[in-house]
Amino acid sequence: MKKFILSLLIGLTAHTAVAFAHVPQDTTETVSRSDTESKKSRFSIGGYGEVVYTRNFFSDKYLRYTDADSYRNDKSHGRFDIPHMTIWLGYDFGHGWSLGTEIEFEHGGTGSAVEIEEEEAGEYESEIERGGEVNLEQFWLNKAFLNGKINIKAGHLVVPVGATNMYHMPVEFFTNYRPEGENTIIPCTWHETGISLWGSVKGWRYEILFIPGLDSDRFGRQGWIHDGAGSPYEFKIANSYAGAFRVDNFSVKGLRLSLSGYVGNAFKNTLSSTESKRFRDVKGTVSIGAFDFCYDNHHTIIRGNFDYGHLSNSELITKYNMSMRKDSPSPKQAVASDALTGGIEAGYDFFGLSDRKIRQHQQFWVFARYEYYDSMFRTQGSIQDYKWCARHRIAAGINYRPIKDIVIKADYSIGLLDKRYNNEPAVSIGIAYAGLFKR
């Protein structure tokens, strides 16, 4: 069955990609103005944000996969969420030098406070008042040469592997939440500190990155390597290094074809000892290849992606993580040797059929999406294959854009799992924005 799914996804994506792709505006990466250009503001500010209400018609209990029958008839539950809100700040120093920053608040940010508890003899207590994360997602200096054909960028960078990492703003996908497959098995949005060589030449864009490797301590069964890019410490361990690349082609009007990849060792990027005889030669090499495309023309958008990843020494890494101290940041879970995801979505703007004066830049998209992903597509040795980690996902809905930078979304989605588990249907409604406020 897995071989059939793999062949189907490869064939579907490759066949459709010949005809379809999309050229979105890149609002987070700008080339410095030359001294001969007309003077304009050197400072730019922008950002994007999403607010979503979801009703999940399945159990939210953490044991829903280990004891599915007990939770088959659980009541639905709802939640409000702010998946992402970011602020971009940029400055053009001139002479080819520019600065870019991005601060991201996930799920409303995080909050904590120290309080005096009157009921406990006036003791001071620290409490978590709100969940979420605050991240410095980008912070780089860029030097442009030859009018942007060649650039060197250093600092904290987005790693553009896969479609979602490169195009992750809410106006660049139809569903309320980012495509689930890539958002599950690889870091998303993936950001690392390093150096990048990039540029654009005659319908091509290229980028090559040198960055620290992932940390295999935090690999796991459901997210594969997803959590390996972060660090629980005040620094990022860099005992091992990695390389990544991305190439985009825009030669055909309305068509983008993209290839990206990553390779790097992950096992030594830890503060724990890895020098015992059993683990001395373990490298934990992560290799990822990804293809994605987008077509945006004739009031139609079709996007697709296929990502495949391999982890060497996954059985030994699992045993090492399982043996770590109870208070370590490792989830102490099994990790697969191979993971994959593939998907395709298509939408049509029905306002495109109306008179231009009537629609006044408004758009009304009706869309559908299908994807498949498996964070335990292949396992090594004695590692158990958790079947609930594989699922098909179908979504359909609408996007209404009253103006270019704002979108109102509504969709129905369902995760289709192996028959021994319960499917996961949901309805989501949200509003989002993305754009530059000053340039």
Describe this structure in words.
The chain is mainly β and 439 residues long. The strands form 2 sheets. The protein has a 16-stranded antiparallel beta barrel with strand order 1-3-4-7-8-9-10-11-12-13-14-15-16-17-18-19. The longest helix has 16 residues. About 6% of the residues have low confidence.
Topology:
Blueprint: H1 2-17, E1 43-56, E2 77-81, E3 84-94, E4 97-106, E5 111-117, E6 123-130, E7 133-145, E8 150-158, H2 163-166, H3 180-185, E9 191-201, E10 204-212, E11 241-249, E12 255-265, E13 285-297, E14 300-311, H4 314-322, E15 338-349, H5 356-359, E16 363-378, E17 390-403, E18 406-416, E19 424-438
Antiparallel strand pairs: 1-2, 1-3, 1-19, 3-4, 4-7, 5-6, 7-8, 8-9, 9-10, 10-11, 11-12, 12-13, 13-14, 14-15, 15-16, 16-17, 17-18, 18-19
Q: What would a concise description of this structure say?
A:
About 10% of the residues lie in helices and about 50% in strands. By secondary structure, it is mainly β.
Give Rg in angstroms.
23 Å
Helix content: under 10%
- Strands across the major sheet, in which order? 1-3-4-7-8-9-10-11-12-13-14-15-16-17-18-19
Strand content range: over 45%
Count of helical segments?
5
**Which structural class matches the secondary elements?**
mainly beta
Main pleated sheet: 16 strands, antiparallel, barrel
Q: List SSEs in N-to-C order.
A: HEEEEEEEEHHEEEEEEHEHEEEE
Strand elements, count = 19
Q: Which outline best applies?
A: globular
Low-pLDDT segments: 12-38
Head-to-tail CA distance between termini: 52 Å
Overall mean pLDDT = 88
